[in-house]
Design brief:
The complex is a heterodimer of chains A (497) and B (94). With 497 residues, chain A is α/β, with parallel strands linked by helices. In chain A, 57% of the residues lie in helices and 7% in strands. In chain A, strand 1 and strand 2 form a beta hairpin. The chains are: A alpha/beta (497), B mainly alpha (94).
Chain lengths: 497, 94
C-alpha cells in the first residue's frame, strides 16, 4: 500500500499518522500544565516529533538520501552536547539561541522553496500562494534568527544589555521593515534570476531588521522579547509549511506560535505594559526618577484587606547592626514564625540559590514556616526563578505565585529579599511616569521586617530608585555578593542559637 | 491540500494551541517555553523535504549545502530543546 494512497475520508496513511502526531503534540503541551505530568508531556511531544520526522522521510521517499542522514546526525549530536553541557543559569540564552536556529532553518526552507527553480529541472513554477508564503516565511524566519542571536548575546552579557537606541531608531526600523516588505513584493512578482536576487535581498533585509528590533530592548524586557521570538519561530515554521504544502508543519508551527503569543501576553500583563511599549524600547528609561515620597503612600494603593481589619503595629528596631552585639535583625529572624523569601535575578547572578535553600532549611529547622514568592517577571525569562530553585531541591509547592501570596505579606514576620529589586519596588505604585509605574509588585514592604540581600543600592534594570533602600528601621540592607552575604547571615544565626 | 484548507488548518491549530497553553501555571513557564521552542524545530520537516528535492531533481551542490545547514539547525533546535526541557522538568519535585 502506498503511503499517500487514500484509505479513509480522503486521508492517506501518512496524513493519518501526521494527524496523530499533531494530537500527540498538543496533548503533550497540555500535560505540561502540571508538574506531575510535565515530564511525560515533554516525552510525548518528542515522540510525536520523531513520528512526524519518520512519516516525512518515508512518505516523501527520501530515506535513501545520505546527506539528510548526515545532517540529522550532526544536528542531533550538537543539540545533545549543548543540552547536557548548559548550566541552569544559562537557560534563558540557551532558549533564545535554539529559537534562533529554528527560525534560521525556516528561513532557509523558504529561501530554497523560492529559488528551487534555479537548480531543479522539470519543476513547475511556484504558484502565487506558495510564493507569497515563502517570502513571508523568509522574512519571519530571518527576523527570528538574527533577533534571537542578539537576544542570546544580550542575555549572556556578550552584547550590551542596555537598550541601544540609535539616532532616529524608530524611523530607521520602520524604514528597514518597509524596504524589506517592498523587496518581498518584488520577489513575489518577479521570476527567474531577478526573483532569486530579490529573495536574497529580502533575507538580508529581515536579518538587519531582526538586529535593529532586538538591540533596543532593555534587559528587563528581554523575557518578553524572547517569548515573542519563540512565537515568531513557530509562525515561521508554519508559514514555510504553507510554502511547501506540508500540513503537519503548518499545524505544529501554529500551535507554537499561539503558545508564544499567550506567554508574551501573560508577561506583558504582569508588567503592566503593552507589547508596543516593549518593542519600542520606551519602557526602559535611562534617566532615573526619584521617588522618595513613594513608600509612605504605597501601602494605600495595593493593599490587601486583613481578615480582622486591623493593622499590626510596625515593630521598631532601635539599633542598626552594631558590630559587637547581636544585631536586631538576627534576633528578629530567630523569632520569625512566618517567612517569605523573594528571589530575583541577583540570586541567579550570584549563584546563591543553594545558599538560599540552606537558609530556608535553617529557618524551617527553627520552626518557621518558609515560602517563596515568585514574581512573574523575576529573572530573565518567565519562570526562571522556579527552575533555579527546583535545581536545588526546593519543593515546588513552596513556590507561590504573586496573586496567591501577595495578601499574606502583611501578616508576615520577615521577608528575605535575595537579589530582587524592581519586583518589590513600591515606587511602582506611586512614581508616575517611571517605567515601572503600574507594574504589580510583591508587597514585601507590608511585612514587619524586610532583610534585603543585594549587591548594591543602585536602581534595578528599570532605573527607578527603590524607596526601601532609604535608611529605615523596618528594613535591613545586607550589601554584597548574595552567596557570600547569605552565608555570613547563616553563620551569624547559627553561632548564636 | 488546497490553500484554503491549509489556512483553515492554521486557524484551528492556533485556537487549539492558545486554549491549551492558557492553562499552564507560571511555575512551569520556563520549561513550557523551551518545550514549545523544541517543537518549533518541526521546521526540520520542511528542511528534509526541500533538501530531498534539491538532491533528486537537480542534484545541485548549493541546494544540498543549504538544505544540510537547515537540517542541522533544526535538529539542534529539536534535540537540544527537548533534552534541556527534560532536564529542567525532572528538577521539579514535590
Amino acid at each position: 500500500m502506498s503511503w499517500n494512497e487514500t484509505i479513509f475520508l480522503g486521508l492517506g496513511l501518512a496524513d493519518i499518522i501526521g494527524l496523530i502526531c499533531v494530537i500527540g503534540t498538543v496533548w503533550g503541551i497540555k500535560m505540561m500544565s502540571s508538574p506531575a505530568t510535565a515530564v511525560s508531556g515533554n516525552l510525548l511531544g518528542a515522540a510525536s516529533m520523531a513520528g512526524a520526522i519518520i512519516v516525512t522521510l518515508v512518505s516523501n521517499d527520501i530515506v535513501g538520501i545520505d546527506v539528510v542522514w548526515v545532517a540529522m546526525a550532526v544536528g542531533a549530536a550538537l543539540g545533545c552536547f549543548m543540552a547536557v553541557k548548559i548550566a541552569m543559569i544559562e537557560m534563558p540564552q540557551m532558549v533564545a539561541l535554539l529559537n534562533g536556529f529554528g527560525g534560521g532553518s525556516s528561513a532557509i526552507v523558504s529561501l530554497m522553496t523560492l529559488v528551487a527553480t534555479m537548480w531543479t529541472t522539470g519543476m513547475v513554477a511556484l504558484g502565487g500562494f506558495e510564493k507569497v508564503t515563502a517570502v513571508l516565511g523568509l522574512i519571519v524566519g530571518g527576523v527570528t534568527f538574527s533577533g534571537s542571536l542578539i537576544a542570546a548575546g544580550k542575555l549572556s552579557g556578550k552584547v550590551n544589555q542596555r537598550p541601544i537606541i540609535l539616532e532616529k531608531q524608530s524611523v530607521v526600523n520602520n524604514l528597514a521593515l518597509i524596504v524589506t516588505l517592498i523587496l518581498g513584493i518584488s520577489a513575489v512578482v518577479s521570476d527567474g534570476a531577478a526573483m532569486v536576487m530579490n529573495a536574497v535581498l529580502v533575507l538580508i533585509g529581515s536579518l538587519v531588521y531582526g538586529v535593529l528590533f532586538t538591540i533596543k530592548v532593555g534587559g528587563a524586557d528581554m523575557p518578553i522579547t524572547v517569548s515573542l521570538l519563540n512565537s515568531f519561530s513557530g509562525v515561521a515554521a508554519s508559514i514555510s509549511g504553507f510554502a511547501i504544502g506540508n500540513p503537519l508543519l503548518i499545524a505544529i508551527g501554529a500551535v507554537v506560535g499561539a503558545s508564544g503569543l499567550i506567554l508574551t501576553q501573560i508577561m506583558c500583563r504582569a508588567m503592566n505594559r503593552t507589547l508596543g511599549q516593549v518593542l519600542s524600547g520606551r519602557t526602559t528609561v535611562l534617566h532615573p526618577a526619584k521617588s522618595q515620597e513613594a513608600v509612605a503612600d504605597s501601602t494605600e494603593s495595593r493593599k490587601c484587606t486583613q481578615p480582622d481589619g486591623t493593622v499590626e503595629p510596625v515593630l521598631l528596631a532601635t539599633e542598626k547592626a552594631a558590630p559587637m552585639e547581636e544585631p536586631e535583625y538576627i534576633r528578629l529572624t530567630r523569632s520569625a514564625k512566618r517567612v517569605i523569601v523573594v528571589p530575583g535575578y541577583g540570586m541567579a547572578l550570584a549563584q546563591a540559590q543553594g545558599d538560599v535553600k540552606a537558609l530556608m532549611d535553617l529557618l524551617e529547622a527553627g520552626g518557621a514556616e518558609v515560602r517563596v514568592a515568585v514574581h512573574p517577571v523575576a529573572g530573565r525569562m518567565p519562570g526562571h526563578m522556579n527552575v533555579l530553585l527546583a535545581e536545588v531541591d526546593v519543593p515546588y509547592d513552596k513556590l507561590c505565585e504573586m496573586d496567591e501570596i501577595n495578601c499574606e505579606f502583611a501578616e508576615t514576620d520577615l521577608v528575605i529579599v535575595v537579589g530582587a529589586n524592581d519586583v518589590i519596588n513600591p515606587a511602582a505604585n506611586t512614581a508616575e511616569g517611571t517605567p515601572i509605574y503600574g507594574m504589580p509588585i510583591l508587597n514585601a514592604h507590608e511585612a514587619e521586617h524586610v532583610i534585603i540581600f543585594n549587591y548594591d543600592t543602585k536602581p534595578g534594570y528599570a532605573g527607578v530608585d527603590n524607596p526601601l533602600y532609604e535608611p529605615d528601621d523596618k528594613v535591613t540592607l545586607l550589601l554584597g555578593d548574595a552567596a557570600k552575604t547569605v552565608r555570613e547571615f547563616m553563620t551569624a544565626l547559627g553561632t548564636t542559637v | 491540500m488546497s490553500p484554503l484548507s491549509l489556512v483553515i488548518l492554521f486557524v484551528i491549530a492556533t485556537i487549539v494551541g492558545y486554549k491549551v497553553i492558557s492553562a499552564v501555571p507560571s511555575l512551569l513557564h520556563t520549561p513550557l517555553m523551551s518545550g514549545t521552542n523544541a517543537l518549533s524545530g518541526i521546521t526540520v520537516l520542511g528542511a528534509l523535504a526541500v533538501t530531498a528535492m534539491a538532491q533528486t531533481m537537480g542534484n545541485s551542490a548549493i541546494g544540498r549545502l543549504l538544505g544540510a545547514i537547515a537540517i542541522v539547525l533544526a535538529m539542534i533546535n529539536v534535540v537540544g530543546g527537548f533534552l534541556v526541557t527534560d532536564r529542567m522538568l525532572r528538577m521539579f519535585k514535590k
